[in-house]
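INFO batch 0412 | record 1 of 1 | parsing
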Amino acid sequence: MKVSAIRNGKMIIKVSEVKEAAGDGFRISEEFYYELDRQVNEIIEEAKRRAKKNGRRTIKPYDL
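INFO prediction complete | emitting tokens
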């Protein structure tokens, strides 16, 4: 599976930052990046729904 984007052909996560966060001694599969990006998108969409439900157009930390 290729590292691919979910939104408009572009990933939200930055592959190089994820590699750095994982630290030395760890390799990361391409599928991991895909799944991480999918989950980040899902979290953002849920936060948007919560903000909208509360009459706001600003997403706040407590929307997570």
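INFO post-check: Residues 15-63 form one domain.
INFO record closed
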